[in-house]
Amino acid sequence: MRRAADEVDTHAHAGRRPALTERARLRMDAAHAMRCARNAVSPLLNTAGAGSFADGSDLQRAWRDIETASRHAALSVQTSKEIYGRALRGAPLPPSPVI
Question: Can you list the pairs that 93-97 forms with residues at least 24 positions away whose Cβ atoms lie under 8 Å?
């Protein structure tokens, strides 16, 4: 994500929008990072046990937030893979301001 953030900053400071394939890759990078975050929380929950799902648990809140955010369409790994693959092949993409 650091590489992606640096790339976005570079384009923003230059006042230009990244090319379509770069935007698709940045979206894929974000989706991959979200998947890594979800995978990182799972062992913590397994270790902490059922009590980690209590309403007052900090871990429960982190788990809920990551699970909710990771289901946003812009962070879908499968959708991002398809968009990135299409962009690399030059195939038509669905119209979206997020890409």
Answer: 93/20, 93/24
First vs last C-alpha separation in the chain: 17
Cβ–Cβ < 8 Å for 55, 61: no
**Per-residue pLDDT tens over the stretch 8-38:** 999 999 999 999 999 999 999 999 999 999 9
Q: Which residues contact 11 (CB under 8 A, 6 or more apart)?
A: 17, 18
HSE (CB half, 13 Å, CA atoms) of 22? Answer: 12
Residue 95 CA neighbour count, 13 Å, CB half: 0
Contacts with 69 (C-beta within 8 Å, 6 or more apart), sequence order:
34, 75
- pTM of structure: 0.79
- Which residues are within 8 A (CB) of 95 and not within 5 positions of it... i.e. 6 or more apart? none
